[in-house]
Amino acid sequence: MNIYISNEIKEKVPYTKLLVFKYSTDVKEQNADLWQYMEDKIIPAVKKELEEKNVTEIKNIASSRKAYKSFGKDPGRYRVSSEALIRRIKQGKDLYKINTVVDTNNLISVESGFSVGSYDIDQVKGDIVLNLGKTGESYKGIGKESVNIENLPVLCDSEGPFGSPTSDSEKAMITLESKNIITLIYVFDNDEDINSLAEMSENYIKKYAHASNVEKLIVE
């Protein structure tokens, strides 16, 4: 499997990168240590930052929103997932507890401010390309009837779009039966220290999702 960023994406936001981790794991319902860490360290840090700035002013949320505008998508209507998660924290709502891979995915997203997606590799057909959704294009989202992906950056395989920084489709969603995973960070910031982000993310994936055979890739 190869992973690419399309010329159309690069023309509109030249500094777009994908930080990719491929690994194997036995997906579990929950990791208590992850949620303890989230409650003790991550959520208080986010709340403290939000005392001084709005959600949209958080660095990597701001850069992702700027990228969406360049792609022709309204970031106020179609929020990146990191913004949606941090807005839940601001509102005093609990974060969703899905499974060990998705929860680790969301931990990385909340701490970094970038949207993060995790996908079942065995459900993906052929190579993956990050492209822009076509006019009138949509798919059935996880827990949603339909997601309008026109002008959204979307992951596509040989069968079509299956994921985006806003909302993923059901096609490659992580379940307790998933074994081979790809976790992907959508980096829309030219100044991000990609190596530090990679180190933090890999540590979390190994510690909380119990990943093995981890392969790391930066796609530019």
Your description of this structure?
This protein has 220 residues and is α+β, with helices and mostly antiparallel strands. It has a single domain (3-219), classed as Phenylalanyl-trna Synthetase, Chain B, domain 3 (Phenylalanyl-tRNA Synthetase, Chain B, domain 3). It is 35% helix and 23% strand. It contains 6 helices and 10 strands. The strands form 3 sheets. The chain has a 4-stranded mixed β-sheet. Strands 3-9-2-10 form a 4-stranded antiparallel β-sheet, with helices on one face. The longest helix has 19 residues, at 32-50. It is globular.
Topology, pairings included?
Elements: E1 3-5, H1 7-12, E2 17-24, H2 32-50, H3 59-71, H4 81-90, H5 100-112, E3 116-120, E4 128-132, E5 138-139, E6 147-148, E7 153-157, E8 160-163, E9 180-187, H6 194-208, E10 212-219
Parallel strand pairs: 1-4
Antiparallel strand pairs: 2-9, 2-10, 3-9, 4-7, 5-6, 7-8
Q: Tell me how many strands there are.
A: 10
Q: Give the CA-CA distance, first to last residue.
A: 16 Å
Structural class estimated from helices and strands: alpha+beta
Poorly predicted regions:
none
Give the radius of gyration.
16 Å
CATH class: Alpha Beta
Major pleated sheet:
4 strands, mixed
